[in-house]
Write a structure and sequence with these properties.
With 200 residues, the protein is mostly helical. The protein has a single domain, classed as Orthogonal Bundle (Glycolipid transfer protein, GLTP). 67% of the residues lie in helices and 2% in strands. It has 9 helices and 2 strands. A two-stranded antiparallel sheet has the order 1-2. The longest helix has 28 residues. The protein is globular and about 50 Å long. Pfam families: GLTP (PF08718). This is Glycolipid transfer protein. It comes from Wallemia mellicola.
């Protein structure tokens, strides 16, 4: 049984199943799918990744708190951000900006790994960090993340831990990452269009 089969069995939310309508990306489904990403870092099996996990969890909470406080105005991520902007607040919006950045780092790292079968995870994750989060991090945070990237397990061990038939797992991982990338880019584009991410 693969990691993705286990998530489905536990009724976990995968990005492949998040509802997207003309109003945007479903908030609760997206946040539940993001929580699955946090669990995925457990498979990397190193405490150095707790900094990444804690960052994701903290930002998921900020967005969820806003949704729970204003459910009727927060059905989609786009509606939530627009409503918070009207209220002259930025807590959840800032949380979402950083959550999207963390998820962008994740899909870039794993997509790079899939496309470069001879590359070790430490290199895939390091390159993805340079291409996503690094430019937003202070000189204090950068060394912590660089350490985490070096702490990646061997590629072979990681893919074995994902379980199941290797070919099937690669297809499942590819489909999952494709859905994740599409949703992150959609919400990031929306926020840039309306300047909701400015200064955050």
């Amino acid at each position: 049984m693969s990691y993705f089969d286990k998530v489905k069995e536990q009724k976990g939310q995968l990005f492949n199943n998040v509802t997207i309508t003309e109003k945007g990306v479903n908030t609760t489904e997206f946040l539940d799918a993001a929580a699955v990403v946090v669990q995925l870092f457990d498979i990397l099996g190193n405490k150095a990744f707790s900094v990444v996990q804690n960052d994701l969890l903290g930002n998921i909470k900020k967005v969820r708190d806003r949704h729970d406080a204003e459910p009727l105005r927060s059905g989609t991520l786009e509606e939530l951000v627009a409503a918070e902007n009207l209220d002259k607040k930025t807590t959840a919006t800032q949380g979402l900006v950083w959550l999207l950045r963390g998820l962008e780092f994740t899909y870039k790292a794993l997509l790079r790994s899939l496309r470069n079968p001879t590359e070790e995870l430490s290199e895939s994750f390091s390159k993805a960090y340079e291409d996503s989060l690094k430019k937003f991090h202070s000189f204090v945070v950068k060394p912590i993340f660089n350490l985490a990237m070096k702490a990646c397990p061997y590629r072979k061990d990681f893919y074995e831990k994902l379980g199941g038939d290797p070919t099937t797992v690669e297809i499942e991982l590819g489909d999952w990452l494709s859905a994740l990338e599409k949703q992150v880019l959609q919400v990031q584009d929306f926020m840039k269009q309306h300047n909701y991410d400015k200064g955050l």
